[in-house]
Q: What sequence folds into this?
């Protein structure tokens, strides 16, 4: 495995076209696109790293997997009255579908859906409390208490967050936000600004590898059925309108973030985190996807084969 | 396995709400909604049946899996210049996305995409020749030369096929059909009218279970990579705007048809065909989906767990 | 003329179905739907009234005619880089078109367009200053210094203005708002909350009757060409996705507001204001439209005949 | 008037940028873009011409005014159950709105709407009979029996008419066509291929100038109310998604055709026909619009002033 990762790292760092770093969040715009990291965490607790696997980066939309997991724990299936579970076929920040479908976002991984999920888990609490809860959960599943929020990134998002504010107010107009819009957005911007390394992220994904149990710590995080369902949502909706492409090329459930990270799950086999800040035109990590494609070719981990 | 299928059959036939039989194709509208069949074909050649597993039914859109496979064989990746591979988020017969995206259908499993694929495999040949080729392929992968086309259903579709004619002419206007519209539609209506039993269908899917090889016959149908990619497309797009729901509930790549059939693939494990003519509001078999959900619960075959 | 208005008033007040009072602005929801007023102002200064023509009501979107006139005065044709001049075919608060056309509203009379126009006339000034300017202009054209803003209505709009906030943030995300969103919305909500009577409103419209000159006061407000162009915009876009219906039935340029008022212009003949709080399904005054239809039938004032 | 037209003719023919001749109908693609004609017909029977006012050209969508008039005569208001009367905000050949609104076109002047109107006036008759009727009507209102159909253009449209075939089949799928699609399209293509000169066209429009009566012949064609309503529809929908622009610049009800002609009505004053084959990006005659703008400036005929 270590050899495989080293190979991938060599191939990826040699790629001339690294994609474009997200420019609409100023704090992310100045990240060096040359960086690359990959971590593979196995159920038995082993972790293999290559490249800048310990470098912290902004997990951005990958946090949506964690907030969805929390929401399912708190509300159960009631969350599905607030958000759907179908691919949207639209960009991450599209508002068209919201108007056509009465303010109910298609799925929890597009921005509108994740804002609705954030609202759902607030349950009348203040942003600070909700963020504390989210952070505690992420630290728990990653088994690492050092994980925190990058306040500079959170502020930077806030300043340029008009598109998300538009989505939030739109849902509020349909009664699909219960807490004040400002507070929901503040909470959303902050949990998107959690900083993690590839290694931490790979470990945080382990509960999705083993039917809800993090086998390295022995803790059950969610039921087997719920773990499988979260994986199915990552598969169908984890890469916005590039989800089909990711399924076709990589063949694993995965969730990307505009910070350049991707968390991918090979059920029964491994939790994988990659990071390369340059994005493709849809907003998914260009070389991160390529690294995962190489990894799956070398390991045969696609869930569509055997 | 036989006990599991018998149990499922008992549960499903006892369900009071069977959904609604497709009404827009007259010949299908008169099918008895009480019928149910299920077949599970294992790579080693064993087949388990329950209910009306030998009853022939119209496979309808399930044929799109076979025409896509043929198109990939003939054109390779060039087919992707004609059709995309993303979930559409729209109903099976929607034309909106076609206008917004210049006549290129989102994926090969919505009607527009399947019509484009049908056009692509015609390559200037007459409908009769193309249909011969499709039928030959289906007979080959199912290892059953008795499979044929129900001409009554084909005629019935033709009479009510204005929506598909609209899609075809729209693509033709953008130069995305090379053969005469009438001939492409005739070919399309006919391959949708192939009649198969659950048992035949399950056997036809075996090459997708074992990385491209039908292990019971020993024939390689497609490469391992291609088999995985076809599975990924079935997962992402096989149930129209109900694909997310199917992934969430069943967790297997699958393709439905308005005849009430579903072909589902459990990679490495089994090819499954179910049939129940009543449809849900999206156009997928209501009890067929439920039967697959039960089967996956009992066997643990979800590709999202281990 | 007085007889005509009395007749219309009698017919309208006898109508059993008055439409539905706008419910989404609480302060407007409690207006008595039984009220009706009509005023006809002639270029020579004569005004004919019937019903509650002196009752103040919230002019709401009719204020968009005045802010557009101010914006044209301040920016000239440069305003058209910020907003289009085509009917939208969509409801007044739709956001779909904004996403498809990069944050540029179709015309100045849908909500998004009017918010952009409000932003344009602020030019860095505070809401209070801009509102002062708008109010001064309305008092000037109506020749009535008693006209003011209903602060309760303005607060009421603010509380329920999520849909407008969504539109504003969406445009801000595309750089099509220059002032802080909160301030633009505050200004917008306030100018929509101007209270006027039918008589005041009819007088305010006189400059559009006589090619830019209010002949009763002798003041030129805008050039002849500009007056005609404002009329053309009222004709094409003044009733949202009911503009075609209004043109068909009434045949005059007009602008409606959800307060139940309509300002209609018969070029060379009269400025007409009607008020009936009940709305049709599109959000235009149901009986107000009917009153104008009757007036045009009796006077032959349609601009489509002679 | 003759001097005005000569001036306009001089200005227009000196314009270097003539727009682009419609390319999608081969027979129209080879028209010389340098040609220009203008005719002004007064109610008293006088006609003023300049340029190639006697040159025949393909009236294309201008024929939709005549078929709508016929349909209103045959069906009365019942036609409005088949087609709406709102601007669409979409291009002439868009299908998106049709899907969103159940196969009912927004208005009779976009292609879909005109096809539905053509179907409505067929009433079970054969294309030849219906065309005879349309031609007879056009000859009657223009008082000129020499008017005919250019069969070459009709054939040319048929060959490239996939977009219109798509619209027609789409409506047929919703039950909004009663006659066979092929026959409706054949009739539609043929009435679009009527050839007229500016002079003939201007005379054909006279009934819309004088509240339904052609005062030069003395014949009443439609009621005053109907004439005004047809004018309102031309105003609101006559130039597709450029209708707002035409209202803003010209200020007259008008209907354009991709052959480069425009028929404009100044109620009570004149019927005007212009022809310049080069089109703008929306599909309306570029210099034709400019000529009308000049004419209205010189005559003050805008319906929005006095």
A:
């Amino acid at each position: 495995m270590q050899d495989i990762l080293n190979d991938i790292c060599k191939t990826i760092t040699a790629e001339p076209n690294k994609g474009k770093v997200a420019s609409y969040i100023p704090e992310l715009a100045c990240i060096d696109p040359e960086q690359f990291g990959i971590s593979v965490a196995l159920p038995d607790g082993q972790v293999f790293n290559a490249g800048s696997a310990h470098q912290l980066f902004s997990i951005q939309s990958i946090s949506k997997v964690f907030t969805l997991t929390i929401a399912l724990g708190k509300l159960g299936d009631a969350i599905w009255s607030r958000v759907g579970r179908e691919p949207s076929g639209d960009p991450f920040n599209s508002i068209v579908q919201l108007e056509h479908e009465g303010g109910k976002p298609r799925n929890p991984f597009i921005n509108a859906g994740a804002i609705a999920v954030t609202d759902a888990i607030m349950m009348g609490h203040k942003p600070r409390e909700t963020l504390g809860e989210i952070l505690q959960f992420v630290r728990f599943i990653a088994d690492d208490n050092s994980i925190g929020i990058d306040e500079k990134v959170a502020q930077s998002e806030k300043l340029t967050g008009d598109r998300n504010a538009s989505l939030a107010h739109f849902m509020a107009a349909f009664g699909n936000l219960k807490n004040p819009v400002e507070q929901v957005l503040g909470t959303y911007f902050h949990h998107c600004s959690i900083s993690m390394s590839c290694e931490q992220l790979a470990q945080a994904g382990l509960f999705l590898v083993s039917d809800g149990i993090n086998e390295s710590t022995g803790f059950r995080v969610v039921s087997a059925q719920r773990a499988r369902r979260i994986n199915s949502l990552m598969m169908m909706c984890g890469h916005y309108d590039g989800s089909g492409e990711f399924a076709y090329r990589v063949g694993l459930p995965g969730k990307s973030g505009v910070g350049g990270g991707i968390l991918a799950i090979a059920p029964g086999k491994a939790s994988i985190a990659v990071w390369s800040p340059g994005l493709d035109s849809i907003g998914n990590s260009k070389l991160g996807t390529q690294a995962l494609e190489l990894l799956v070719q070398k390991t045969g981990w696609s869930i569509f084969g055997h």
Notes: Residues 108 and 126 of chain C are 21 Å apart (CA to CA). The interface with chain A takes residues 94-96, 98-100, 162-163, 165-170, 172-173, 181 of chain C (CB under 8 Å). Chain C has a mean pLDDT of 95.
